[in-house]
Design brief:
The complex is a heterodimer of chains A (about 180) and B (about 650). Chain A has about 180 residues and is of the alpha/beta class. Chain A contains seven helices and seven strands. Chain A starts with a helix and ends with a helix. With about 650 residues, chain B is of the alpha+beta class. Among the domains of chain B are: about 170 residues, no CATH class; about 100 residues, Tick-borne Encephalitis virus Glycoprotein, domain 1, CATH 2.60.98. In chain B, strand 2 and strand 3 form a beta hairpin. The longest helix of chain B is centred in the first third of the chain and has 32 residues. The C terminus of chain B is likely disordered. Classes of the chains: A alpha/beta (about 180), B alpha+beta (about 650).
Chain lengths: ~180, ~650
């Protein structure tokens, strides 16, 4: 009867898949994990893109800032890029997290399109991305002056997202910092 | 009144489908030939009523009947009539009706063109397809009624069709894709009928081959159009994004490719029987899974329809019934002992086995990559994403493994071949292929090793085909006689394999040689790229039927000779206010020039512009068209339409005795 049993294998695999799909129905893929909000940015030691130094958590904290996850393989990042440049030109501090990318391609992109980032962390293997729970590029995290993640936006940051969600929070955090 | 007629016709179609799913199947089980002979007429009846329903929905769109909710939210009076028509399937509810219509079309086609099939087999096949119709028609009627009214309070004008979908490519892309997806239901139904009848033999494979080839050809065209559309409409020159929804159409294609080849071995040599049945089940299951992924909202994607857990649950239950049921049937009825037919390791059979393994592994890796974020999420381990790097890393080596085998396939012999014969056959093609691989890429500086490899592999494939073709002609006494002896099946294979070679060259050359510049350009500026001079003349205001646009005027010259004038646009659609980039493309067999507008920079009329030079990008789509033509040619082979065999099958004998 043994040969018959192996014919059940596809059915068994499908049953596993169906369970995953069933679970998937009750999850919202664009919802962010609440665990990260109001928690400090995870510590890391990663090289700077196009520079010799190693970056750590302290290099990107100290003021209210945006941390933008991007990659050259990400088409939406291309759409997002001009608006980030506008924000950077307006004086908003933005740090880049170059996620699972090739350094030379990333450097080429910045040379070609302009660099809106104060510093770019080269996360070649996606380790910091994993700690952050990056779902996919682009994603943007709003950090307060103490390096605590206050908000996470999944998807492209455009004028609409900035004005309705990020900017009010950004201003509020900046004021909160001045008040005490 | 028209929408109510449409709704009623859809309900009648569901009733007929319920009868088709049960009565002929019962007839086949009890040996009642009256019940079985009902099947073809029922199949045609379903087509008539789903057709009426689809016509009513199209009429509601064309007449701007905004009291129908679907029309109000997906159409607009300003929309050109052709897009009003294509808006019917530019949304979840309407595309389900299209799906049901195409399924009814395939079912009726099987009913009408299968006079050579034994009635017993035909009734089982049609019953299985009727059961699938029941699933989709009730999905449409219960969870996504396309004819729901907005009464009272119908709006004066509609919300407009998503501008991305207002495009000639998108008029035919979904119908072609569905022709492919749903077409695999025929192979699936034949496989299930064979399992039910307990007779897995060569005749089963021969009956399903033309249907499978046709469905595969439609799916190939559908995927090609989708890729082409992404290329010119999305405005960044990419042509494949490994997006979950693209993967959803690609997985059935990969499984279908394995199926097409495995059916050949089953038909000719009676081999891999249970394997082929499993592939038929896989191909259609992956089509259904694609439907689930697109419509349930479990994965994020640019293509996904509105999220609705109720719909997701319905289609998951349907998926579980169809796939779970057929795999259970497979586990219980498939022959467990390996077939007695044997073959040597060096033979066409083992090459086909390689093909099957490569395509199945490819389908599973794409499935795994698509599902991985969901699996990790479902296990509560957080959110991850699998980007193009994963897919490229696993896909490129698989295809590189495939092509050497593909080159051997046509020249090899069934059952037993010898390495020394292969050496004799292929020594010249190998040498020429290596020479091509070394020399041809030198035409394009700088020398690129990946292109060299692609040219080497493709020319090996092409030369193997040419050599085999030539041998066949030479073995005949006259050339004309030799040509006449070539079967459509053989010609189809040659055309499809040539298409694959073109595709490989196109993909590798365009990935390696493409040049892309994002620039700030003032009116009057000239930029040089890949030997072409792009002169930006001005930006003008133009208006279309339902949009206004800013149009940039470009003159392109090569060595002072005018090549093209290109006019990319930035459109703002009036009804929705959304902004769309319309790239300008100057297409050519060896290169495409591509200009897209970014954002205005400053107040002096300067714009961010994206210029692309894309060599040989057309080869990819031409290759896909060749593959489809090849599959259609093979499906047209007359031997599939031969009259009923002289010897009645065992089932039939039982039936006539009863």
């Amino acid at each position: 009867m043994a040969p018959r049993i192996k014919l059940f294998l596809p059915l068994f695999l499908f049953a596993l898949l169906a369970i995953v799909l069933f679970r998937g129905l009750f999850l919202d893929p664009s919802e962010m994990p609440s665990a990260l909000i109001d928690r400090p940015l995870p510590a890391f030691t990663l090289p700077e893109l196009g520079g010799a130094q190693q970056l750590s958590r302290d290099d990107v904290t100290g003021q209210v800032a945006l941390l933008n996850v991007w990659a050259t393989w990400c088409v939406s990042c291309r759409v997002e890029h001009p608006y980030l440049q506008q924000l950077a030109d307006a004086g908003i501090p933005i740090y880049g997290l170059n996620y699972k990318d090739n350094d030379s391609a990333a450097q080429g992109w910045l040379d070609e399109l302009g660099n809106p980032y104060r510093l770019v962390i080269a996360d070649r293997d996606g380790t910091l991305g994993l700690d952050l729970g990056v779902y996919g590029a682009p994603e943007t995290y709003l950090l307060d002056a103490n390096g605590v993640v206050r908000y996470r936006h999944v998807g492209v940051v455009n004028e609409d997202v900035w004005q309705t969600i990020l900017e009010p929070l950004y201003l509020q955090l900046n004021q909160g910092q001045v008040a005490p | 009144m028209i929408p109510e007629f449409g709704h009623f016709a859809l309900i009648l179609a569901l009733c007929l489908a319920l009868i088709l799913a049960t009565v002929p199947a019962w007839g086949a089980w009890r040996g009642n030939s009256v019940a079985m002979s009902l099947a073809p007429s029922l199949a045609v009846g379903i087509l008539v009523f789903v057709g009426i329903s689809f016509g009513c929905l199209a009429a509601a769109f064309l007449q701007d009947d905004f009291s129908v909710q679907l029309v109000a939210s997906h159409s607009n009076t300003l929309l050109p009539p052709i897009y009003k028509f294509s808006a019917v399937w530019g949304n979840h509810e309407g595309s389900l009706v299209l799906w049901a219509l195409i399924l009814a079309f395939w079912t009726a086609a099987v009913a009408l063109f299968s006079s050579q099939l034994p009635l017993l087999v035909l009734s089982r096949v049609l019953s299985v397809m009727g059961a699938i119709s029941v699933g989709f028609l009730s999905f449409s009627l219960i969870t996504s009624n396309p004819f729901a009214r907005l009464l009272p309070g119908a709006p004066a004008d509609g919300a407009d069709l998503n501008p991305l979908l207002q495009d000639p490519g998108l008029i035919i892309h979904p119908p072609l894709l569905y022709m492919g997806y749903v077409g695999f239901s025929v192979a699936f139904a034949f496989a299930i009928a064979a399992l039910l009848g307990g007779r897995l033999d060569a005749s089963w494979a021969r009956w399903s081959r033309p249907w499978t080839n046709t469905a595969w050809a439609f799916l190939t065209l559908g995927i090609m159009l989708g890729s082409w559309w992404a290329y010119y409409e999305l405005g960044w020159g990419g042509w494949w994004f490994w997006d979950p929804v693209e993967n959803a159409s690609f997985m059935p294609w990969l499984a279908g490719t394995a199926l097409v080849h495995s059916l050949a071995a089953t038909e000719k040599r009676g081999l891999f029987k249970s394997w082929t049945v499993l592939l038929a089940i896989f191909a259609f299951s992956l089509s259904l899974l694609g439907t689930f992924l697109v419509r349930s909202g479990v994965l994020t994607s640019v293509h996904a329809f509105a999220v609705d857990p109720e719909r997701g649950m319905f289609i998951l239950v349907f998926l579980a019934l169809v796939v779970g049921g057929s795999l259970t049937l497979y586990a219980l009825r498939a022959p467990a002992v390996s077939s007695r037919v044997s073959f040597a390791w060096v033979s066409r059979e083992s090459l086909l086995l390689c093909n099957n393994v490569v395509f199945l592994v490819a389908a599973l890796t794409v499935l795994f990559g698509t599902m991985f974020p969901l699996i990790v999420d479902a296990l509560g381990m957080g959110k991850v994403s699998v980007g193009p790097p994963y897919f490229n890393a696993v896909f490129v080596p698989l295809m590189a493994l495939l092509v050497p085998v593909m080159g051997l396939g046509p020249v090899s012999r069934w059952k037993r071949d010898s390495l020394s014969r292969w050496r004799g056959e292929l020594i010249i093609p190998t040498v020429v292929a290596v020479l091509c691989g070394i020399t041809l890429p030198a035409l394009h500086a700088p020398y690129n090793i990946w292109v060299a490899l692609a040219v080497l592999l493709s020319s090996w494939l092409v030369l193997g085909l040419v050599k085999d073709f030539w041998e066949r002609l030479r073995s005949a006494s006259t050339t004309a006689g030799g040509l006449r002896r070539l079967t459509p099946g053989y010609c189809g294979m040659v055309i499809a394999h040539l298409g694959f070679a073109a595709c490989v060259i196109g993909i590798v050359a365009t990935s390696q040689y493409s040049v892309e510049h994002d620039l700030k350009m003032d009116p009057g500026d000239t930029r040089e790229m890949a030997g072409y001079n792009f002169r930006f003349i001005e930006v003008a205001e133009v208006s279309g039927p339902n949009f206004v646009a800013q149009e940039a005027r470009f003159e392109v010259t090569e060595d002072g000779v005018p090549v093209a004038s290109m006019n990319p646009q930035k459109r703002r659609y009036l009804a929705s206010g959304s902004v769309m980039t319309e790239a300008a493309i100057d297409a050519g067999l060896f290169r495409d020039l591509y200009v897209a507008m970014g954002e205005p920079v400053g107040d002096n009329g300067a714009w961010a512009m994206r210029l692309h030079y894309k060599p040989m990008v057309r080869w990819m789509w031409l290759g896909a068209i060749l593959m489809a033509i090849g599959a259609f040619t093979a499906a047209a082979d007359k031997r599939y339409r031969r009259q009923r065999k002289a010897l009645p099958t065992a089932d039939e004998a039982v039936l006539h005795g009863a």
